[in-house]
Write a structure and sequence with these properties.
Helix content is about 45%, strand content about 5%. With about 190 residues, it is mainly α. The longest helix is centred in the middle third of the chain and has 28 residues.
Length: about 190
């Protein structure tokens, strides 16, 4: 199994760079699909190949992606990959009170929520065209829980531990019928609840 390489990004410049919707979607696509060309990214994110090339170069400039060194092709036909197998994006300790850092972090969180919603809508629209085993395996569940902060932290850690062996970028034992799957796990205290 390839080694897990989780990166914790705290640089405000990188947070701002990731807060671009097209860049965020390209990056998310590379995390899910692995090595992809700008043209392949364009087909998924709804942008031109040249626009994706620009955004890939920007992600490279901030150390988030790299060109696949031993791959053939040039420009739009040369694949890119992320430089890690997992990322977290949060302002550094010394920047948490900086309004610009909080704004960039909040924008990234909203992009993630919007991206997950868009993927869920697209998956729902395409659901009936899937083979029966994929239709039966899919789930869009939500739960109303009553937990303490410690219980919530333990639940989040448990779900993370359960999912981690299946991360596509680190899994080399996937069955032949495996395909990229989006799993989003959001756990938060309900707003306005005292």
């Amino acid at each position: 199994m390839p080694a897990e390489q989780r990166r914790h990004v705290t640089d405000l410049r990188v947070l701002r760079a990731m807060a671009n919707p097209v860049r965020y979607r390209i990056f998310s696509h590379l995390m899910a699909a692995g090595e992809q060309t700008a043209s392949e990214c364009a087909a998924v994110v709804g942008a031109s190949a040249s626009n994706c090339s620009y955004h890939l170069r920007e992600l490279e400039r901030f150390g988030l992606v790299e060109r696949v060194a031993d791959a053939a092709g040039d420009g739009r036909e040369r694949p890119w990959r992320t430089v890690g197998t997992g990322f977290s994006f949060h302002p550094g300790e010394d920047e948490r009170d900086d309004p610009a850092a909080r704004l960039a972090s909040t924008q990234l969180i909203h992009l993630g929520i919007d991206d997950t919603a868009a993927l869920a809508h697209a998956a729902t629209d395409a659901h009936e065209a899937l083979p029966e085993d994929w239709r039966d395996a899919a789930a869009l569940n939500s739960y109303g829980l009553r937990v303490s902060p410690a219980e919530l932290a333990a639940l989040v850690a448990g779900v993370d531990a359960l999912l981690r062996p299946y991360i596509g970028l680190t899994r080399d034992d996937a069955p032949a019928d495996a395909a990229p799957v989006h799993v989003a796990f959001q756990a938060f205290r309900l707003p306005g609840d005292a």
